[in-house]
Every structure is written in C-alpha cells, then in structure tokens.
Amino acid sequence: MAHSRGRTTRATVSFACGSLLMVRARYHERTRLLAPKQLLFVGRRVPCPRMIGRQLLTDYEIVRVLGQGGMGTVYEARSTKTGERVAIKWLHVRPFAPDDPDLLRFEQEARIAGSLDSPHVVAAIAVDHDPESGVPFQVMELLDGEDVRALLGRVGPLRPDVALRILAQACEGLAAAHAVSVIHRDIKPENLFLARGGDGEVTVKLLDFGVAKIRRTPEAMGAGGALTAPAVSMTQSGQVIGTPLYMAPEQIESPKKVDARCDVYSMGVTLYAMLAGAPPHAHVKSLVELLYAITTQPPPPLAESAPWVPAEITRFVEKATAHAREDRFPSVEAMRDALRPLLPEGFSLRQEALVGVTEEERKIVATHAANPLVASAKTERSAETVKTARARAGRARLAAAAITLVVLGIAAFLLVGR
C-alpha cells in the first residue's frame, strides 16, 4: 500500500513474505504467517524491474518507485487522461500457479478493497496482469499521511481522545468489511493509515486485506452484496494467520474457527498500543513465550502501562481484549457504539491533534475502579476458570513445542543448504 508523509512519498509494502527474522531466532512484530511453506521463502530478493515510463491499462504511466518489499514493489503512477496520481502494487516476477496462495491473497486483497464502499477503507481501482510478463498488479488510491505505527514512533503514546477517534473511524471501515462477512485477521497500527485531506482533516483508512477470511455463512450466501469465499484455500490446515502481538487467543488455538470477535480483540490491542505506546506483550522477546502468554492469560492491565488513561477508557480496553471472546463486545458495531459516550463531540480528527501525551499529562494518575463490564462475566465463569486455564495451557504448550520444532527444522535446513 503506498503512503506518503510530508514532502517525501513513502510506501509500506504489505505482502505475505515469510519469516526470515524468526528463522534467525529473532522475533519481529511484522511476522505474519507462521507455517513451513512461508518460512521457505526467506532470503529471496528480486531486483526492482525498470518500469519507469511504462504504461499500464493504456492509462497509467509509472512515475517512480515508492517502496519495495520481499515479494513486490509499489510505484507511483499518473493517469494520462485525468492526471490523477495512483499507486501501483506489483508482484515480483516469478511463475504463479492458479492456486498459488500468494497470488490468491494478492487478488483477494484487491477484490475485497474494491467491493467495500467506505471512506475508511483504502480504495482499489483495478487489478490486472501485465501482458508482457504475466505479473499481477493492483491500481490503488495514493494516500498522503502516515500509518499509526509511524505516528507512535514519532510522538509516543497518544492522547486518549485522539486514540479513541482513530479507533472509532477504524471501526467504521471494519464494520463495512464485517457486513459482507469479511474478517480482517491482521488489525494493527501499521494497517490503520491516517490520510491527510487538503483542509487538515484526517481520515482513518483500513489497509491490507491480504490475509482476510471470507466466511461462508447462510446470511452471506443470501446477501446480494456479500463476497464469495475462494474455492481454493489460501492457508494450510493449522496455519496461524496474523501478527502475533495483536492476535486474539483463538487465532492461535483454532485459526479456522475465528469470527469477527478476533478483530474486536485486535482493535482493543491496537487501542492499548496507541494509549501506552506499545502493545501489551511488547516486552516478550521469544515468539514461543509470546504465543503462550496470549493463549493463557489476559493482557497486562493498561492502568500499569498508562496510569494517566481515564478509568472508563481502561474498562473499554479490558472488555475489548477479554480472553474469552464471549466476554468481548459482540461486534465491531457494538464497539463503535460504546465509543460514542466517550466522544460526545464525534469521531472527526484533525492533523494538529496528532500529538503525544505531554510529560505533565503522564504525571496524572487516574482513579481505576473495578470493571463492572467484565466483573459479572468473571463471576459467572468462575466455576470453570481452573479447568479452562489448564486446557488452554496444555494446548499452548503443544503449539509452542510444534512451532519450536518447525523453526529449528527450517533453520537446520537452511544451514545445511549452505
């Protein structure tokens, strides 16, 4: 997805491009696909093709390279008819089988983005194949601004009202996806883009539907505007999809059975990161330890990481990130509606508001009472807490052991291959 910030246009290329850092015993939050097939893609670098000046679809002339990732390149292009600036997302040249998971994800991203009529979802204009090389590409809107991850790196924790406004607008885009049975599965600060308008207004855009899941539900089958799930699965059985730091427990334990509430959880973790400057388990360096922590215990209290955050917002985060999905907001619409009392002036956001918490504000310690939103649920579930925790811990240990074996096996394969 092409982005620009300030006077210099930047690009963030979001492709499912393997886990090189994990094989090298280092964990990075951008690792998204944890499965042997993806691990075998590590280390590949394809030179950026010389595309400047080429025309695609008889209309778009490529102007310059915006960025390059492990599996693709993003270019800026200009319409020769209207002068409109767009982004061209181009996969690297290699043979693609019709059922290649990377190709299917690439095409699905464009199909989903192009079908969602929301100002809070990045627009896909076209998807096609280059007639000369057969390489697939997307034509997408070119955004000016930065993603939330970049903003946090620049200013640190955000003021609570700013974080809530960003989340509320993201909920609008996610609600449009859920309405057609699309589960994003990779909500995180990097996939929330703050697009600047000419009047200083900021619009939050939801990015990257490359690993989204289209649910086959009776409601979706009967809805005229619903998307159709792909006939060929894009994932292997048991494959973990998402960015570990922002994943819901069920994405690790039962990835094939996730529903929209996994996005609610990831939105809650993203809000936590905006308020505290980092997600709940950012201190965990081992991937195995991270997966174990997510599946066996709730996130550390936000009041410990950001004591200046008002109690009602802390309670909101706790409900969104409840360990059991039955205890979360039942839908992203319910999550959005719960934000309205916290934002009586509405969800609009302006560029000048994108600042961090001041030192004076950090010194304020909010009063945090017990959370009534989750207390009743905890009481009702107390009888099964011990049994459930033990079962989760057992599954997490097995999953951690399996992932460790896969990582060690692939690392050994790569070393022997040298």
UniProtKB/TrEMBL annotation:
Sorted keywords for this record are:
ATP-binding, Kinase, Membrane, Nucleotide-binding, Serine/threonine-protein kinase, Transferase, Transmembrane, Transmembrane helix
- Superkingdom of this entry's organism? Bacteria
The segment(s) forming the Protein kinase domain are 60-343
- Pfam family, any one: Pkinase
The residues that hold ATP are 89
* PROSITE patterns to which the protein is assigned, alphabetical: PROTEIN_KINASE_ATP (PS00107), PROTEIN_KINASE_DOM (PS50011), PROTEIN_KINASE_ST (PS00108)
Has UniProt tagged this entry with the keyword Mitochondrion?
no
Q: Which GO terms describe its molecular function?
A: ATP binding; protein serine/threonine kinase activity
Which regions span the lipid bilayer?
398-416
Q: What name does UniProt use for this protein?
A: Serine/threonine protein kinase
What organism, scientifically named, is this protein from? Polyangium fumosum
